[in-house]
Write a structure and sequence with these properties.
single chain; mainly beta; two-stranded antiparallel sheet; about 5% helix; globular
């Protein structure tokens, strides 16, 4: 599989659609997937909304539990890569990131700090 770096700055607003959960190795075995060092790999479903386009949902794998990432919260994705895969007659694109973190809160405007005046 060849990795393709993804420019996250072109994806628009990213929000967590499904909170982080451990990735399973198989539907039947239900074993939790680990990396080479034995760290648990998590999956986070993220909505992608580019200006003027519909919302898409992508599942991103990341090593270690993304702390502070909650459903509906805006997130930052670092080191996003895409991989094309094929198994028999099935094929698709999977995503992996170096990190997924909560986005910093936007600063309050002067009007909201003054009580909405």
């Amino acid at each position: 599989m060849q990795s393709i770096p993804v420019d996250v700055s072109r994806l628009g607003v990213l929000r967590c659609a499904v909170a982080p959960e451990p990735k399973l190795t198989g539907f039947e075995t239900k074993e939790v997937k680990k990396d080479k060092e034995g760290n648990t790999i998590y999956t986070v479903a993220v909505t992608v909304r580019q200006e003027g386009r519909r919302i898409s949902v992508i599942e991103i794998s990341v090593t270690g539990e993304p702390k502070g990432v909650v459903e509906g919260g805006e997130v930052r994705v670092t080191g996003l890569e895409a991989f094309s895969w094929a198994m028999g007659d099935r094929h698709g694109i999977s995503f992996r990131a170096a990190a997924i973190t909560p986005a910093p809160a936007a600063p309050a405007t002067a009007a909201s700090r003054a009580g909405g005046a």
